[in-house]
Design goal:
By secondary structure, this protein is mainly alpha-helical. It has helices at about 1-30, 40-45, 50-85, 90-145, 165-170; strands at about 35, 150. It folds into 2 domains: about 1-30; about 35-170, 2-Layer Sandwich (Protein Binding, DinI Protein, Chain A), CATH 3.30.910.20. The longest helix is centred in the last third of the chain and has 54 residues, at about 90-145.
């Protein structure tokens, strides 16, 4: 597995070096292309839109989270009660209560899974809406500042080319 990771990392570094070489060559031929960089994750966490979306989802999902928590607590209590009483129960009662606990556990896991899936879907919807607005603003800033490329992922970038704060300010208007 380590060899696979090394090979993958080596390919990624080679690709990054090749891209940098191409960009440097293009920059030299055109007399200096300009590049910008955006930390998209900062846009998704630090913008007012992102914070408002988080608050909205918190309000929307808090009731369901409470229901899930209550279900987990009920299951734990039922499990503890069964563990205490199991030695005293007849085989028939022990089997019946074991089935009840298993059914309760399945219901709890289903409820947790559905909650997590719904929350994940809503987060993705909210992030997509923010991303759509952000990408339009990135395009506007790139045109205004005559940038040839705007990158959103890099191993390292100079603060000189970082336009994230500009995009955040525009996104928060």
């Amino acid at each position: 597995m380590l060899n696979t990771v090394k090979a993958s990392l080596s390919r990624s570094l080679l690709l990054a070096a090749a891209c940098a070489g191409v960009m440097a060559h293009a920059q030299a031929q055109t007399g200096g292309g300009r590049i910008g960089f955006v930390y998209t994750e900062r846009l998704m966490t630090e913008s007012r839109l992102a914070k408002a979306a988080d608050a909205k989802m918190q309000a929307e999902f808090s009731k369901r989270q409470k229901q899930v928590d209550e279900m987990v607590q009920r299951f734990k209590q039922a499990r503890e009660k069964f563990d205490e009483e199991a030695p005293k129960l007849s085989d028939v009662d022990r089997t019946r209560r074991t089935r009840e606990l298993l059914d309760m556990e399945k219901d709890m896991q289903r409820m947790q899974r559905e909650y997590n899936e719904d929350l994940f879907q809503r987060k993705n919807e909210e992030r997509a809406a923010i991303a759509q607005k952000a990408f339009k603003l990135i395009e506007q800033v790139a045109e205004q500042e005559h940038l040839d490329a705007v990158l959103q992922e890099a191993v390292w970038s100079s603060p000189r080319i970082d336009i994230t704060d500009k995009i955040l300010k525009l996104l928060d208007k």
